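Blinded run. Sample ID left blank on purpose so nobody reads anything into the name before looking at the predicted structure. Input follows.
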Amino acid sequence: MPKTLELKGGWLNEDLIQYFSNYAYFAFETFGDRVKTWITFNEALSICQYAYGYGYLAPGILDPAKNPYICGHTILKAHALAYRLYELLFKPVQNGRCGMSMFTTWYEPGSDLPDDIAAAARALDFELGWFTNPIINGNYPKIMREYIGKKSAEEGLATSRLPSFDVQWQNALKGSSDFLGINHYTSNLVKAISGGSPGWQGDQDTVAYLDSNWESSASFWLKVVPWGFRKILNWIKNTYGNPLVLITENGFSDNSEAGLHDVRRVKYHKDYINQMLKAVIWDKCNIEGYAVWSLLDNFEWRKGYTEKFGVHLVNFSDPARIRTPKSSSYFLAKLFANHEFS
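Blinded prediction complete.
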């Protein structure tokens, strides 16, 4: 986000819808003869939650009750306008495609209790559905509108903290995606609670937690749960009519001690790709591509260079930033070339 636009309120200001459209027009016009797959926004949920709600990322605004929903509303409108612009002016000539990429966890019920099963379903709607349902069906998930509306009324608010789309915006949003980009890393267990603080987590009446028996990574939030990958892909198929899916991120973090022999990353990708193949071959999920996060060790949000996702090691103490392939790089190169596990 350019500082000048952040000073105008950033994604809390709907003026950014037109600014983003202008930016998108320039990008489509300038690069569209070569770029055939466009992603308007990557992980809008992370932007809205952690930058405008919990203050964890820049610009560091703390207001979890309403800001994330305002941010998300603006981003969705900006996406819709950019998509319709591409659809009208550029797609017929450039023959490309445009969509969004969503961060999503698989949420598994923490027990067989009906309340926990319902809580897991709500968690999926509140996370993946928040941005996916509007671009496919034209509006927020029904459960989000109901829960946030009810809680807003209980707080004495005249209107819901979740903004609403008028018919014009619903029409602009509906079907505003040629594919669904999915960034998936891990799974959580979920149970039902009540009485949470106003905000995305408290509004859904759920609490997510990790199974201590699941294999860990260098990231506290990333447990290795391959079976969750297949489950989220099937949920997308069954919930949204089997849209075209591109896996735009999937990866494993370790630290500097792992070095070049990153056997745990190799196993992670082998197991996750195997689950994806089951979703494609056995479950008939409509998945076209798979991208690993990431090509290189890089700057990982507030963790900086301490958590490594790359399949190439980067020597940050060398001014030339020498890149060296890790074991995972050789494994993936062979897999992608041969289209089979060896």
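Unblinding after everyone has recorded impressions. DSSP finds eleven helices and ten strands in the chain.
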